[in-house]
Amino acid sequence: MQIKALSLGVAVSAVLAAVSCGNREAAALQRLGSSEAGPERSMVLTPVKSGTAGGVFRGAPVEIVAFRSEFRFSIADSRDSSDRCTGKRPGGEGLAFVLLGSAPTALGAGGSGLGYQGLKDSIAVEFDLACSPDNSDPEAPHIAIDIDGRVSHQDGAVAAPVLIVDERTQTSFDDAAIWNAWIEYQDGVMEVRVARDGKRPEQANLRAKVPAKLVESRKLWPGFTAANGKGASKQTVAAWQSEWVMVPRTSTPPGPPRPPRKEQLIGPAF
Ligand SMILES: [Ca+2]
Fold it and tell me: What is the pLDDT of residues 227-239, one digit of tens each?
């Protein structure tokens, strides 16, 4: 609990210019907490230091009806353990892909809050490394969808957490390899896929109905948060590309649909 208190209200630390692909205007990235630019336009959300929390958000909002986002991430150099169950996996707490309904000015709670807990009016996909009994976490790395800054799987998640563990090797997305994640939203349904081999799985790992009002037809700041607890990992978003399906223009008669806005704000081209 001490870690959460320390991490609340971390102020904006910097605004980084970022190159966008195929856009009329360049978007910027807004950095929070411990995050820092890494090599090849990656973003290191947390260093290998316990108690740190970091985030990075699109500096300008999008107004969308649907989207696809793909990102590559790694969780490496794990030290000690943030896990408070029996498993004691080494490393930090994990990271979250966040869609925030207000301009990002501060991180949420760190530690088991992943830098997301307490960020109201939002929806997130968590990639949780450490079992946290107060959040009703399973004893293994898992993904889940959280809303309104609530990370407890009893009161916050919109679907049961899904374990991402290789049964044979017991490895997961904390194995220091590059993992890919695909997050897609359309018509009130969110799908999440993860893979270690870079190939988008046909079947979603997690598919859930989510409140459309948290995503559609409003100003939305997408980004990432991450945190370390007692243990620590270097948590990096190596690349991030998105296709935003923008809110249609209102005109009479209705004009042709707008093409999705494609952009890559982090990392080298996919
Ligand atoms: Ca956790």
Answer: 999 999 999 999 9
